[in-house]
Amino acid sequence: MIITGEASGDLHAAALIKKLKDLDSSLEFCGIGGDKMIAVGFNAIFHIKEMAFLGFIEIIKHLPFIKYVQKRIIDTVNSEKINTIILVDYPGFNLRLAKKLKKLNKKIIYYISPQIWAWGKNRIKKIKKFVDKMIVVFPFEEKIYKEHDIDVVYTGHPLIEHIKNYNFLSREELFEKFNLNKEKEILLLLPGSRKHEIKKIFPETLKASQKLAEEFNLQIVVACADNINENIFYKLSDYKNYKIIKGHTYDLFKYSYFGIIKSGTSTLEAGIFQLPFIVVYATNYLTYLLGRLLVQVENISMVNILLEEKVVEELIQSDMNCSNIYSTSYKILSDKKKYNEIKQKLSLIKSKLGETGAIEKAAKAIYSVLNEA
Predict the structure, then answer these.
(1) Domain over 2-156+357-372 is classified CATH 3.30.70.100
(2) The model's pTM
C-alpha cells in the first residue's frame, strides 16, 4: 500500500512504483494516489483530489471524511492482508495513519520526510515510535535521524531524475503550442494545487502581475496543477489577459523569465531551473497563527533553507498582498545585477540534491523491507 495526498507525492510515488515493478513485476499497489500513479498500474482507493486539504482549520472541517478514509484504509490493509505500507510526504495525515497501522503490527516505510527540522522534536518522537524505515532526500535529514537512532537511508532527491528524464519542448514549440507571444518573456504564476490556497493566493498575485507585465513587457502564464479545473482562475478575477497551461510546468520553468510561486515543491523545482522568483503563501489566519507557534525555522522556502540564506524573498500571510508582491518583484526585475545574482545563487541548488539514481536507491531500500516482511 502507498499513501500520498499531493501532486508532488503522486509524481514521486509513480516513479517509485515503476522502479519497484522493474525489481519485481508481480508487485501490486493500492492506496491513495493520483493520475500519475494510476497510469503505472496503481489501484486508487481514494484520489489525491479528494485529499486536498491543508492546515488545522481545514482538517477540522474535513474530520468526518478523514476518519472515513482512515477506516477504509485500515479495512483494506486487513482484508487484503497487506504487511507493508509506504507513506509518501503528506505528514499531517500520514503520521496519524502510521500510529493506527503500527498497532496492527505493520511495516511502515516513510519516503520524503516530514520537515522535522521545522516542526521540532515532537514529530521525531512519533517517527521513532511508528516508522520502521525513513528514506530521505536531503543529506541533513539523514544526520538528524541518525542522531535519534532511527533507521534511515539517504537517496538524494528524485527531482533531479524527473527533470533529467523529462521530454522538453523547445521554446518555439511551447510558444506555438499555447499561442504565446514570441516577443515577450513569461511571467510565471504558480498559485498552488489546492482550491483554498488558489482562492487566497491567485487574486493578489494576478493584480500585481498585471502591473509588472505592463511595465516590463511580459506575458502572464499560470501553471495549473493537474488536479485543478482551470475555471477556478477565471472565477477569481475579471482580468483575463493571461494564459493557463496545464501539464507543462517544467517547460515553463525552463523558458520563463521570472516567477511568483506558492511555497512548496515548486520553489525547489524553480531553484533547480535557476529561475529567479519570489515565494508567496497564505492560509486560514488561525491555521497560520498555530503554525507560527509550532514551526521553528526562519525561512519556509526549501531553496533558502538549503542555501542557508534568504536568496528568494518570502511574502507570507498578510505580507502577501498586491502591493508587496509588486514592489518586491519590481526591485528584482528593474535591477539586472540583482536578478543575475539570484540566478547565480540558485545554480548551487542542484549540487545540494545529490546525483541521479535516487529513485532506484529508494526502490531497493523498500524492496529489501518487503522481503523481510
Answers:
(1) no
(2) 0.86
**What integer pLDDT is reported at residue 264 of this predicted model?**
86
**Spatial separation of the C-alpha atoms in residues 339 and 1, rounded to whole Å:** 45
pLDDT of residue 115: 79
Cα separation, 162 vs 24, whole angstroms: 22
Are the C-beta atoms of residues 81 and 223 closer than 8 Å to each other? no
Residue 51 in this model has a pLDDT that exceeds 90 = no
Query: CA 49, CA 35: separation in Å to the nearest integer?
Result: 10
pLDDT of 298: 66
Q: Outline which parts of the chain fall under CATH 3.40.50.2000.
A: 2-156+357-372, 171-353
Q: Nearest-5° angle of CA 36, CA 161, CA 155?
A: 100
Contact 136, 143 (CB under 8 A): no
Instruction: Looking at the structure, give the CATH architecture of the domain made up of residues 171-353.
Output: 3-Layer(aba) Sandwich (3.40)
CB neighbours of residue 27 within 10 Å: 13
Answer yes or no: is pLDDT of 198 > 70.
yes
